[in-house]
Amino acid sequence: MTLRLALLGVAHVHAEAYAALLRGREQRQGDVQLLGFSEADPALARDFALGTGLTCLPLGEVLAAGPHGVIVCSETSGHLDLVRAAAGAGAHVLCEKPIAIHEQDALSMEQACTAAGVQFVTAFPARFSAGVQALGQAIGSGELGAALAYTGVNHSVAPDRHHPWFSRPELSGGGAGMDHIVHLADLLRFFGERPAEVYARLRPVPEWVRPDAGSLGEHGPDAAGLVTLRLASGATASIDCSWSRPPGYPRWGQLRLDLVASRGVACLDVFAQQLQVSGAGYGWEGYGPDLNASMLDDFLRVCRTGAAGRADWRDGYEALRVVRAAYASAASGQPVPLAED
Q1: Same structural domain, 198 and 162
Q2: How far apart are CA 295 and CA 292, in angstroms?
């Protein structure tokens, strides 16, 4: 069975990687057919078409071609309309994270997909890491004993230098907090934890770090933050989220989670597989499995079988609830309880 796929919106930083992986699979294995992509921004559409060789089509024309699945890679503010349109066309959805700016939009997505009988998959590639899988098994088996404290770090280069919408809250919902809290919130959920209370401090990028910071708005988007969580299990967790890596940093960033438990400790660094390469330049080259490729393989399984993905709508929604609680806490200066939904 050849699966027909399309990208809806290509503003996200991962859109080009998804296109390259699927084009490669189309050419090597022939079990997928990329119909093209839709994009409302003419300049972005032109650049993406030139860079990928894909055809830009109006949204209605893409969906009329009958895709089995679509990948939603627009600005976060555009996710809801694209998910609704895809569900209405009977296509399964892989949606970038955070899945929405507001929880109500996320709920509307779930309603649309449920009514259409299609699966909603959240793009959480870290779940496909062998290290994440091994730590999950160690926690679930009781090998490490009771979890006491998690310490998470998710840093990266600021994506708005090449994708300016990340710094426009009306399009992205915020800054580094919206971009990075979701990954570690999801890993905690994957390990069986449920946040009961969230406290956060979020700060804009200072001008001594980025000279054009003042042009990003009165306060600028949040570029760094520290989130602390009280978990229902009795453990605590922290999430250090930032766009602190300088331009030219040898790798994209870091996704790390350390655990102190009653019978041991564990240190997880999802992107630690790398070699230092020097010559004409210097960089860190990653090796090992491509987590985006593994996630796309899982989505193809969803499109073939109609079964749920490894990360479904609920996973995306629960991560978004943590993000929204963090922003509410940062605004009020007070901890925000997170009741079970």
Answers
A1: yes
A2: 5
